[in-house]
Structures are given as C-alpha cells and as structure tokens.
Amino acid sequence: MVSRSLRKVLIRTGLLAVAISLVVAAGMALASDALAADEENCQVCHRYSGLGTIDKRDGTERVFYVNEELFKMSVHGKVRCGSCHFDVKEIPHRPAKKVDCATKCHVKEPSTGKEFSHEVVVKAFVESSHGKDIRPGFEKDKPNCVYCHQNPIYSPIRDILTAKKGIELAILMRCRACHEDKVWTDRFYRHFTHRMHLRLTHKEVVELCASCHEDAEKMRRYALEPTWSLKDSFHWEAVKYEAANAPNCVTCHAPPIEGGQYTVHTITKLATETSPLFTEERRLKVCAMPDCHPAATATFAKGKVHAAGIKVGILREQAEAEVLAGEPTLTEEERAILIERAQAEQLKFKIVRLVKIFYTVLIGVICGGMFIHQVLDFIATMRERREGKH
Amino acid sequence: MMDEKERKEAAESGYYQRLKPNEVYQHNVMWVSFVFLVATGFMSQIPHEWVEAWFGPYRNMIFTIRGYVHRTFGCILAGVSVWHLWYVTMTKDGRGAFIALMPKWRDLPDMKNNIRFMLGREKHRPKFDRFDYREKMEYIFGALGTAIITITGFVLFFSEYFNKFVIDISTVIHRMEAILATMSICIWHFYAVHFKPGKFPFSTIFMDGKMELHELEEEHMLVYEEIMQSQEGESGPVESTEER
To answer: How far apart are CA A282 and CA A288, in angstroms?
Structure first.
C-alpha cells in the first residue's frame, strides 16, 4: 500500500519536473493570452449575488452571480466571458444563448499554438450513445456538457502521503525560483496537478452516471436495464472506500487500454462494435487491467454485470414498438437469439434472488426462534434464582 | 465418558475439565478470527455515509488493510477447521467430544421437557449430558456454516477463476451466512456464556476449560452424577451441592 503510493508520488513528481522543464517554451505561447478574464467588465453586474431569474417555461431558477475569485481559480478562469457568450455584445444585454462548448475560445493551446476548442471532444461525444441514441421526444434525457462538467476549481494533489498543509506552496516556491511570472507559474502548476488526479471521486462518478442509469423508466426507452445491482457488488464496496483501484463506471466503459482510444466521450452500448466490451476478448482485457484483475480468466470475464432481471421484458417491448412503427432494427432470428441470451441471464438472476430470499426467511425463523428460546430461558433462570436454585 | 482418573480429579479439585487444552486453543483461535472476520467483513457493508464519516481521508488505506486482514483471518479460520477435523478424527479426546456432540434420540425429549420447564409446565429441568441439545445444535450448525462460508470465501478470494453466476451466488451466500452466524452467536452463544444470569460478564471456561461442579450440576446433571457416584463407591454417599 505505502510502496504503491510512494511510487505514484515519485511518478507524479517526475512528471511535474518534466512539465516544469517545458515551462519556458509554453510560457512564450501563453504570454499572449495573459488577459484578465473580466476585461469586458461583466462583473459590473454579475458580482451581485442576488442576480438571477426564474425561467418562465419550466420554472427553473437561474443564478447569474459569478464569484470572480472562484472563477479565476477555475479551469476556465483565463477565458474571457465573451469567448463563450459571444452573442453578448453590449451592456446591458439580452438573454445570452446557451454556450456551445465546440466554440473556439481565443486561448492558445500551448502544445500546438492553435486556437483552443473542445470541438474534438464534442464531435466524439455526438457519435457516442449519449450523443446520438436519444429518442425523439425525450431530448431532456441527453446529458449535455455541463451535466457532468461544472467548470471545477483547480485542486491540488490529494493523496494520503501528500495531503499535508503547505506542500503546494513549497513546490510553487521551487517553481518560482526560476520562473519570473508568478501568475503564469501558479496557473501552470495548478493546471498540471489538477489533471493528475480524478476531478470527481469514484463515488461521485458512479452517482453521476446512476442519476440517469438507475432510472428504470428512462433506461427502458433505450432497451437498457437499470444499474441497481451495482450497489450489491464488490466494485461498489471499493468505490465507497475510494480505494486507489476502485472501478467507477468509466473504468470499464472507457478503459485505458488499446492505445487510449476509449474515452468517456465515446461511450457506446455494449452491442456496438466500437464498445470496449463488445467481444469477450475485449472484456477480458478490461477485467485484466493491471490495477483490477490481472489474473482474470476468460470464464471470469463472462456474464452480465448489471443484470436487473427485466431484460427479456424490455427486449419484447422494444420489438413490439419497432413492429408497430414499421422500423424493425433486427431480424426475427437476431432478436430470438438476443431474447434467448437474456432469458438465460434472467434465470441466473432469479436463482441468486431466490437464494437471498431463502436466507432472509431462514435468518428470520432461526434468529426469531433462538431469541424466543433465550428469553424463556432467561425468565426460567430468574425464577430458579428466586427459588434459590442458582 | 470420563475415565476413573478424570472423575477422581474432578471430585477432588471441585472442577470438571469440560474442554481439553487442545479444545481451548482451538476455540480461542477461532473466536479471535471470528471477531476480526465479522468486523472487517461488515465494514464492506456499511453505508457510504458512515464510511466517509468514520474513516475520512484514510478510507482508501483502511479498505486495503481491511481486505488483507479479512483474507488472513479467513485463512486462519479455515486452518482451525482443518485442525479441528484432524482433532476429531485422529485423537481419542477429539473422537470422544465429537461423538458426544452428535445428536441422539434423547435430545428430542430433552428439548421438549426443557421448553416445558421454561414455560413453567415442569418442575425440574431435564438432566443433560456433557453437551445438551442447545450446544449440539450450535456445534452442528456452526460447523455447517463454517464449511459454507469458507468455501464461498475461497471462491471470492480466487474469483478470477469463476464465472459471474458462481461469484454472485457465492457473494450472496457468504454475506447471508455471515449475518446468520453473527446473529446466532450474539443471540445464542453470547446469552449462554455471557448474559445468562450467573454468567455475566463471561464464563471462564474458554480460558482453562474448567467448569465448577455446582455449575456442572445445574447444567449437565448426568455428568455430575457420574462423578459423584464414582466417589460414592469410594467414600460413601456424596450429597449434591443443591441439597447442601
């Protein structure tokens, strides 16, 4: 445990050293972007904490207050307001359009010197299940960028060995010994250390995904089972404790294997060829990742992980709906195979559930009986003591 | 059955050697393992809010240690089971204890009469032998439960070699057996050796295996009578402590 953490710290420190050696080159590129975020004076109004409105359409409360200090510390702290809200040209302004994360935000990407944009990520996301498989009429099911990302504040490395006060400043002082621009140096350090660990904890990732994937009705629309069973698994136990190698949803659905081609923005259904879990060979690779189950066998990698015992019904409903709409996506044979597999998995699920019910009844009967027996014995023993027998 | 020497020793010392030293060692290793297994096992089942509140930033390290401790004591418990199997098959004392722990027809009327006594429908408790029906049930179901939880525990320990269905079944059985075992020990065993009037805070038999004769007379009258009758032959009739 300690040696692993130490190794991680050493790797991180090494990476930091490499990064700092790139500072001189990157600094040249970034220097031209060293603009204050609020050079457009948006804070004239948005500094007031009461600034907000209620959306007339759905009653949603919208807060327009921006804490400048916090914003400057955030990952978008160097981006001007107008770079994202580019339709705002004057003050006071009309309601701004929704931000498009594929916009070029006039910040130079230091590794290439090109104008920075999230366009590549957005393109990948649009092709993923979360981007394209949304049923007509249920556009709200689609998670947009801010559903998962909330312009987080830069945070230092959190680790059991490094979580002590003063470590950040101590490292920064070393950086500042060579790099004159204090603001740039602090920012580079924070950016780098921020990306070295997960922004969300494992539990936060699971809860974020579960906020939709535990909704049976919503999942039914996409022929998916809800992920209720996750919280019965050993994976969840590791997540609860934030174990270093805890598997959150992304670990398996966007695993760091095969050259890093799977990302959280390219997640697709398991039945899609581009899924990292499409074939048994790929599943085995995912299970056998070095931090997970390196000794995993092909047998181990088989089986349905998120079974909820309702897949057969979902598939039949889907088939009926497609026939009614006149747009079947599968042949009769393909569907029969799918349903047969689902029935086999459902039977296993039912057996496990029956065992649980059996034990629940057994525990109730045995422990209830034992309790009554011991209470009677207690009363009888007290009676004996009163009679002077004990 | 005791031999003559044991009966004589018991009568002279005022103590009956209820558990042999080997049995005391087995029991002590087992209960220490059990306590650690219960603590580290149920740690994985507590709500995540408690995990954060109790362990804070150290929960990652604690989870790792928890896993190692649980597996280590699981192996120790499995080792004690093997030790016990060797003991009950290869030693005279072990075979004797094992035979005495097996259910007999007279346990049924004993149980019936004891329940009738507890309900106030009999004047006296039945006369129990070395192990009464409660202890036999505890031993037999305890052994069965240990076997089940050990097998499923090893499936989970080496889960990489089993399929999802076997792992799921083993997980459910392991957890439910653990709940059953813990509750049984708390209700059945803890009452018998800790909370029963006259036993609090605990019976000392687990330390040296010795039971005082007056306690033996109350709980295992047949053994007491056997000791007393043997002495009667040597030095005339011996009164029971109850009568005294």
So the answer is: 10
* Distance of alpha carbon A110 from alpha carbon B104, whole angstroms: 84
In this prediction, residue A164 carries a pLDDT of 57
Contact of A337 with chain B, judged by CB distance below 8 Å, is answered with no
**Is A234 near chain B, with CB under 8 Å?**
yes
Query: By the 8 A CB rule, do B182 and B46 touch?
Result: no
pLDDT surpassing 80 at residue B233: no
Radius of gyration of chain A (CA): 28
| A372: helix, strand or coil | helix
Low-confidence ranges of chain A (pLDDT < 70): 1-37, 156-167, 390
Tokens found for residue B102: 């097996």
**Closest to A367 (Cβ–Cβ): which among B57, B161, B183?**
B183
Mean residue pLDDT across chain B: 90
What are the residues facing A52 on neighbouring strands?
A63
Question: Cβ contacts (< 8 Å) between B218 and chain A: which residues?
Answer: 389-390
Residue A63 backbone phi and psi in degrees, to 5: -105, 130
Comparing alpha-carbon positions, the chain A residue that sits nearest to B57 is: A160
Q: Which tens digits make up the pLDDT trace of B92-120?
A: 999 999 999 999 999 999 999 999 999 98
In single-letter form, the type of residue at position B132 comes to D
For residue A18, count CB atoms less than 10 angstroms from its CB and return exposed for 0-12, middle for 13-18, buried for 19 or more. Answer: exposed
Query: B146 vs A80, A152, A386, B5, CA distance in Å?
Result: 66, 50, 39, 35
Q: What is the pTM of this model?
A: 0.78
CA angle (B158, B164, B169) in 5-degree steps: 85
Q: Taking phi first (over 0 means left), then psi (-120 to 50 degrees means alpha), and beta for anything else, what does residue B16 get?
A: beta
Q: Is the pLDDT of residue B243 over 50?
A: no
Pairing label, strands B15-17, B210-212: antiparallel
**Residue scoring higher pLDDT (B130 or A390):** B130
Which of A238, A371, A380 shows the shortest C-beta gap to B118? Answer: A380
- Give the CA angle between residues B96, B99, B100 to the nearest 5°: 85
CA distance B195 to B200: 5
Contact, B107 vs B136, CB < 8 A?
Answer: yes
